[in-house]
Amino acid sequence: MYTPKISILLLTVVLTACHVSNSLISTSILPSSNLTNNPSSSASPSIITEHNIIYGFNERHTLDISYRGDLISPVPAVLMIHGGSWISGDKSNMLKYRTAIIQEGYVYVSMNYRLITNQATYLDMLEDIELAIAYIKTQTLGIPIDTTQIVLAGESAGAHLAMLFSYRNTSPIVIKFILALVPPLDFTDPNYINFGNPTNQLFLANQLMQTNIMNANELLENGYPQSWYDASPIHFLETAVPTLIGYGALDELIPQSNYVRFLEKVGEINAPVEAILFANSGHALDNDPIQLEELFNSFFLSIKNITYQSYPLTFNTHMGILTI
Hints:
Blueprint: H1 8-18, E1 47-54, E2 62-68, E3 75-81, H2 98-103, E4 107-111, H3 122-138, E5 145-155, H4 157-167, E6 174-181, H5 198-209, H6 216-222, H7 226-230, E7 243-248, H8 256-269, E8 273-278, H9 289-307
Parallel strand pairs: 3-4, 3-5, 5-6, 6-7, 7-8
Antiparallel strand pairs: 1-2, 2-4
Helix pairs in contact: 3-4
Protein backbone atom coordinates (compact mmCIF):
# COMPACT_ATOMS: atom_id res chain seq x y z
CA MET A 1 0.00 0.00 0.00
CA TYR A 2 1.21 3.54 -0.73
CA THR A 3 2.61 5.30 2.36
CA PRO A 4 2.80 9.10 2.12
CA LYS A 5 5.85 11.09 3.12
CA ILE A 6 4.23 11.98 6.42
CA SER A 7 4.71 9.02 8.77
CA ILE A 8 1.58 7.18 9.87
CA LEU A 9 3.04 6.63 13.32
CA LEU A 10 3.96 10.30 13.71
CA LEU A 11 0.46 11.43 12.80
CA THR A 12 -1.46 8.87 14.83
CA VAL A 13 -1.27 10.83 18.07
CA VAL A 14 -2.20 14.09 16.33
CA LEU A 15 -5.13 12.57 14.45
CA THR A 16 -6.38 10.81 17.55
CA ALA A 17 -6.45 14.08 19.42
CA CYS A 18 -8.12 15.96 16.56
CA HIS A 19 -10.65 13.35 15.48
CA VAL A 20 -11.31 10.58 17.96
CA SER A 21 -12.08 12.83 20.90
CA ASN A 22 -15.19 13.97 19.02
CA SER A 23 -15.99 10.77 17.16
CA LEU A 24 -17.62 8.74 19.92
CA ILE A 25 -21.10 9.37 21.25
CA SER A 26 -21.06 10.16 24.96
CA THR A 27 -22.41 7.54 27.36
CA SER A 28 -24.22 10.21 29.33
CA ILE A 29 -26.50 11.21 26.46
CA LEU A 30 -28.03 7.81 25.75
CA PRO A 31 -31.71 7.49 26.69
CA SER A 32 -31.73 6.91 30.44
CA SER A 33 -34.82 4.72 30.24
CA ASN A 34 -32.79 2.11 28.40
CA LEU A 35 -29.79 2.17 30.70
CA THR A 36 -31.07 2.41 34.26
CA ASN A 37 -31.55 -1.27 35.02
CA ASN A 38 -28.61 -3.20 36.41
CA PRO A 39 -28.41 -6.62 34.70
CA SER A 40 -26.72 -8.08 37.77
CA SER A 41 -29.57 -7.14 40.11
CA SER A 42 -32.03 -9.75 41.38
CA ALA A 43 -34.82 -8.18 39.31
CA SER A 44 -32.92 -8.54 36.03
CA PRO A 45 -31.94 -11.66 34.08
CA SER A 46 -28.34 -12.77 34.05
CA ILE A 47 -26.15 -11.54 31.23
CA ILE A 48 -23.79 -13.96 29.50
CA THR A 49 -20.70 -12.40 27.92
CA GLU A 50 -17.83 -13.87 25.91
CA HIS A 51 -14.84 -11.57 25.43
CA ASN A 52 -12.16 -11.40 22.73
CA ILE A 53 -13.46 -14.16 20.50
CA ILE A 54 -11.10 -14.61 17.55
CA TYR A 55 -12.95 -14.38 14.23
CA GLY A 56 -10.09 -14.02 11.73
CA PHE A 57 -6.36 -14.03 11.09
CA ASN A 58 -5.21 -10.63 12.42
CA GLU A 59 -4.64 -9.55 16.02
CA ARG A 60 -7.43 -7.01 15.53
CA HIS A 61 -9.88 -9.75 14.57
CA THR A 62 -11.66 -10.08 17.90
CA LEU A 63 -15.24 -9.57 19.00
CA ASP A 64 -17.35 -9.62 22.16
CA ILE A 65 -20.81 -11.20 22.48
CA SER A 66 -23.37 -10.54 25.24
CA TYR A 67 -26.95 -11.77 25.61
CA ARG A 68 -29.66 -12.46 28.16
CA GLY A 69 -29.31 -15.74 30.01
CA ASP A 70 -33.06 -16.38 29.78
CA LEU A 71 -33.30 -16.46 25.99
CA ILE A 72 -34.97 -19.57 24.62
CA SER A 73 -35.52 -18.81 20.94
CA PRO A 74 -32.78 -17.43 18.67
CA VAL A 75 -32.83 -13.66 18.19
CA PRO A 76 -30.99 -11.38 15.76
CA ALA A 77 -27.62 -9.93 16.66
CA VAL A 78 -26.85 -6.22 16.57
CA LEU A 79 -23.27 -5.92 15.35
CA MET A 80 -21.61 -2.74 16.64
CA ILE A 81 -18.76 -1.13 14.67
CA HIS A 82 -16.74 1.47 16.56
CA GLY A 83 -15.57 4.84 15.31
CA GLY A 84 -12.19 6.51 15.50
CA SER A 85 -11.48 8.03 12.08
CA TRP A 86 -10.46 4.59 10.74
CA ILE A 87 -7.16 5.05 12.60
CA SER A 88 -7.98 4.17 16.20
CA GLY A 89 -10.78 3.00 18.49
CA ASP A 90 -11.84 -0.25 20.09
CA LYS A 91 -14.90 -2.47 20.42
CA SER A 92 -15.11 -1.46 24.08
CA ASN A 93 -16.12 2.04 22.93
CA MET A 94 -19.55 0.61 22.12
CA LEU A 95 -20.25 -0.84 25.58
CA LYS A 96 -22.53 2.09 26.36
CA TYR A 97 -25.11 0.54 24.01
CA ARG A 98 -24.90 -3.00 25.36
CA THR A 99 -27.49 -2.81 28.14
CA ALA A 100 -30.13 -1.21 25.92
CA ILE A 101 -29.62 -3.75 23.12
CA ILE A 102 -29.76 -6.71 25.49
CA GLN A 103 -32.81 -5.38 27.34
CA GLU A 104 -34.60 -4.98 24.02
CA GLY A 105 -34.10 -8.70 23.42
CA TYR A 106 -31.17 -8.80 20.98
CA VAL A 107 -27.70 -10.29 21.08
CA TYR A 108 -25.02 -7.62 21.40
CA VAL A 109 -21.87 -8.11 19.32
CA SER A 110 -19.03 -5.59 19.12
CA MET A 111 -16.04 -6.08 16.83
CA ASN A 112 -12.55 -4.77 16.31
CA TYR A 113 -11.26 -4.39 12.78
CA ARG A 114 -7.98 -3.51 11.07
CA LEU A 115 -7.12 0.19 11.04
CA ILE A 116 -5.04 2.59 9.00
CA THR A 117 -2.26 2.00 11.53
CA ASN A 118 -2.35 -1.65 10.41
CA GLN A 119 -1.86 -0.47 6.80
CA ALA A 120 -5.53 -1.31 6.16
CA THR A 121 -7.67 0.28 3.46
CA TYR A 122 -11.45 0.51 3.43
CA LEU A 123 -11.54 -2.76 1.49
CA ASP A 124 -9.64 -4.51 4.28
CA MET A 125 -12.09 -3.10 6.82
CA LEU A 126 -15.06 -4.32 4.78
CA GLU A 127 -13.42 -7.74 4.59
CA ASP A 128 -13.18 -7.75 8.38
CA ILE A 129 -16.92 -7.06 8.72
CA GLU A 130 -17.62 -9.92 6.33
CA LEU A 131 -15.34 -12.22 8.35
CA ALA A 132 -17.06 -11.25 11.60
CA ILE A 133 -20.52 -11.89 10.16
CA ALA A 134 -19.35 -15.20 8.68
CA TYR A 135 -18.14 -16.18 12.15
CA ILE A 136 -21.51 -15.24 13.66
CA LYS A 137 -23.24 -17.37 11.03
CA THR A 138 -21.11 -20.50 11.33
CA GLN A 139 -19.36 -20.53 14.71
CA THR A 140 -21.97 -19.50 17.29
CA LEU A 141 -24.04 -22.67 17.54
CA GLY A 142 -24.17 -22.53 21.34
CA ILE A 143 -25.43 -18.94 21.38
CA PRO A 144 -29.11 -18.05 20.75
CA ILE A 145 -28.44 -16.02 17.59
CA ASP A 146 -30.77 -16.02 14.60
CA THR A 147 -28.24 -16.48 11.79
CA THR A 148 -30.75 -15.65 9.04
CA GLN A 149 -30.78 -11.90 9.75
CA ILE A 150 -28.61 -9.27 11.42
CA VAL A 151 -28.62 -5.56 12.30
CA LEU A 152 -25.56 -3.31 11.96
CA ALA A 153 -24.87 -0.16 13.98
CA GLY A 154 -21.89 2.15 14.02
CA GLU A 155 -20.48 5.50 15.02
CA SER A 156 -18.63 7.87 12.69
CA ALA A 157 -16.05 5.77 10.77
CA GLY A 158 -17.85 2.63 11.96
CA ALA A 159 -21.16 4.00 10.69
CA HIS A 160 -19.55 4.68 7.31
CA LEU A 161 -18.26 1.10 7.15
CA ALA A 162 -21.60 -0.36 8.26
CA MET A 163 -23.45 1.47 5.50
CA LEU A 164 -20.88 0.81 2.78
CA PHE A 165 -20.64 -2.89 3.60
CA SER A 166 -24.42 -3.31 3.70
CA TYR A 167 -25.09 -1.36 0.53
CA ARG A 168 -22.49 -3.37 -1.41
CA ASN A 169 -24.56 -6.49 -0.60
CA THR A 170 -21.85 -9.05 0.18
CA SER A 171 -22.97 -10.09 3.67
CA PRO A 172 -23.10 -13.79 4.64
CA ILE A 173 -26.22 -12.94 6.69
CA VAL A 174 -29.07 -10.78 5.41
CA ILE A 175 -28.72 -7.28 6.88
CA LYS A 176 -32.16 -6.03 7.86
CA PHE A 177 -31.37 -2.57 9.28
CA ILE A 178 -28.55 -0.08 9.93
CA LEU A 179 -28.18 2.56 12.62
CA ALA A 180 -25.57 5.07 11.47
CA LEU A 181 -24.46 7.83 13.84
CA VAL A 182 -22.63 10.74 12.17
CA PRO A 183 -21.32 8.76 9.17
CA PRO A 184 -19.13 10.24 6.42
CA LEU A 185 -21.21 9.56 3.32
CA ASP A 186 -19.50 11.09 0.31
CA PHE A 187 -15.75 11.46 -0.22
CA THR A 188 -16.52 12.95 -3.64
CA ASP A 189 -18.25 15.93 -2.01
CA PRO A 190 -16.01 18.90 -2.96
CA ASN A 191 -16.42 20.33 0.53
CA TYR A 192 -15.32 17.18 2.35
CA ILE A 193 -11.57 17.34 1.86
CA ASN A 194 -11.34 21.02 2.82
CA PHE A 195 -13.56 20.79 5.89
CA GLY A 196 -12.31 20.86 9.47
CA ASN A 197 -8.59 20.09 9.32
CA PRO A 198 -7.80 19.63 5.61
CA THR A 199 -4.38 18.11 6.31
CA ASN A 200 -5.92 15.40 8.46
CA GLN A 201 -8.82 14.86 6.06
CA LEU A 202 -6.46 14.36 3.12
CA PHE A 203 -4.13 12.07 5.06
CA LEU A 204 -6.99 9.83 6.19
CA ALA A 205 -8.58 9.76 2.74
CA ASN A 206 -5.30 8.84 1.05
CA GLN A 207 -4.68 6.02 3.48
CA LEU A 208 -8.25 4.76 3.42
CA MET A 209 -8.55 4.76 -0.37
CA GLN A 210 -4.89 3.97 -1.13
CA THR A 211 -4.24 7.10 -3.18
CA ASN A 212 -1.56 9.79 -3.33
CA ILE A 213 -3.52 13.03 -3.69
CA MET A 214 -1.34 16.00 -2.72
CA ASN A 215 -4.03 18.67 -2.32
CA ALA A 216 -7.67 19.49 -3.05
CA ASN A 217 -6.80 21.33 -6.26
CA GLU A 218 -5.53 18.09 -7.72
CA LEU A 219 -8.98 16.60 -7.24
CA LEU A 220 -10.65 19.58 -8.88
CA GLU A 221 -8.28 19.45 -11.86
CA ASN A 222 -8.08 15.70 -12.42
CA GLY A 223 -11.29 14.43 -10.86
CA TYR A 224 -11.74 11.92 -8.06
CA PRO A 225 -10.04 8.51 -8.23
CA GLN A 226 -12.39 5.57 -8.62
CA SER A 227 -11.61 4.36 -5.11
CA TRP A 228 -13.04 7.59 -3.66
CA TYR A 229 -16.33 6.79 -5.39
CA ASP A 230 -16.20 3.14 -4.37
CA ALA A 231 -15.66 4.05 -0.71
CA SER A 232 -18.65 6.43 -0.57
CA PRO A 233 -22.06 5.07 0.53
CA ILE A 234 -23.84 7.72 -1.56
CA HIS A 235 -22.81 5.89 -4.73
CA PHE A 236 -24.48 2.64 -3.57
CA LEU A 237 -27.84 4.06 -2.55
CA GLU A 238 -29.64 2.09 -5.26
CA THR A 239 -28.98 -1.06 -3.23
CA ALA A 240 -29.48 0.46 0.22
CA VAL A 241 -31.04 -1.49 3.07
CA PRO A 242 -33.26 0.32 5.61
CA THR A 243 -31.09 2.88 7.40
CA LEU A 244 -31.58 5.38 10.21
CA ILE A 245 -29.03 8.21 10.38
CA GLY A 246 -28.35 10.65 13.19
CA TYR A 247 -26.28 13.71 12.29
CA GLY A 248 -25.35 17.03 13.88
CA ALA A 249 -25.96 20.43 12.32
CA LEU A 250 -22.77 21.68 13.99
CA ASP A 251 -20.58 18.71 13.06
CA GLU A 252 -16.97 19.82 13.10
CA LEU A 253 -15.64 16.82 11.13
CA ILE A 254 -18.20 16.25 8.36
CA PRO A 255 -19.60 19.11 6.25
CA GLN A 256 -23.37 19.52 6.08
CA SER A 257 -23.13 19.23 2.31
CA ASN A 258 -22.32 15.54 2.82
CA TYR A 259 -25.77 15.00 4.31
CA VAL A 260 -27.55 17.38 1.95
CA ARG A 261 -26.17 15.61 -1.12
CA PHE A 262 -26.94 12.20 0.34
CA LEU A 263 -30.50 13.00 1.41
CA GLU A 264 -31.27 14.68 -1.90
CA LYS A 265 -30.34 11.48 -3.69
CA VAL A 266 -32.38 9.48 -1.16
CA GLY A 267 -35.40 11.56 -2.15
CA GLU A 268 -34.71 11.23 -5.87
CA ILE A 269 -34.63 7.42 -5.85
CA ASN A 270 -36.89 6.88 -2.82
CA ALA A 271 -34.21 4.93 -0.94
CA PRO A 272 -35.21 3.37 2.43
CA VAL A 273 -33.30 5.91 4.53
CA GLU A 274 -34.46 8.19 7.33
CA ALA A 275 -32.38 10.86 9.04
CA ILE A 276 -32.76 12.79 12.29
CA LEU A 277 -31.02 16.15 12.54
CA PHE A 278 -29.50 17.16 15.87
CA ALA A 279 -29.80 20.92 15.44
CA ASN A 280 -27.68 21.91 18.44
CA SER A 281 -25.02 19.21 18.31
CA GLY A 282 -21.66 18.59 16.75
CA HIS A 283 -20.05 15.23 15.94
CA ALA A 284 -20.72 13.88 19.44
CA LEU A 285 -24.51 14.45 19.20
CA ASP A 286 -24.34 15.65 22.79
CA ASN A 287 -26.72 18.63 22.93
CA ASP A 288 -30.10 17.35 21.70
CA PRO A 289 -31.48 14.85 24.24
CA ILE A 290 -34.98 14.86 22.76
CA GLN A 291 -33.69 13.96 19.30
CA LEU A 292 -31.45 11.30 20.79
CA GLU A 293 -34.35 9.62 22.55
CA GLU A 294 -36.39 9.87 19.35
CA LEU A 295 -33.59 8.26 17.37
CA PHE A 296 -33.18 5.27 19.68
CA ASN A 297 -36.91 4.77 20.08
CA SER A 298 -37.22 4.77 16.29
CA PHE A 299 -34.29 2.39 15.97
CA PHE A 300 -35.68 -0.23 18.33
CA LEU A 301 -39.21 0.08 16.95
CA SER A 302 -37.92 -0.29 13.39
CA ILE A 303 -35.82 -3.37 14.04
CA LYS A 304 -38.62 -5.01 16.01
CA ASN A 305 -41.01 -4.46 13.11
CA ILE A 306 -38.48 -5.80 10.62
CA THR A 307 -36.84 -8.67 12.48
CA TYR A 308 -39.70 -10.07 14.54
CA GLN A 309 -42.42 -10.11 11.90
CA SER A 310 -42.01 -13.85 11.32
CA TYR A 311 -41.81 -15.21 14.85
CA PRO A 312 -42.41 -14.17 18.48
CA LEU A 313 -39.65 -13.40 20.96
CA THR A 314 -39.75 -15.68 24.01
CA PHE A 315 -37.79 -15.89 27.23
CA ASN A 316 -37.63 -18.59 29.88
CA THR A 317 -40.93 -18.15 31.74
CA HIS A 318 -39.49 -18.58 35.22
CA MET A 319 -37.11 -15.66 34.58
CA GLY A 320 -39.54 -13.30 32.90
CA ILE A 321 -41.25 -12.72 29.59
CA LEU A 322 -40.66 -9.92 27.12
CA THR A 323 -43.67 -9.14 24.92
CA ILE A 324 -43.18 -7.66 21.47
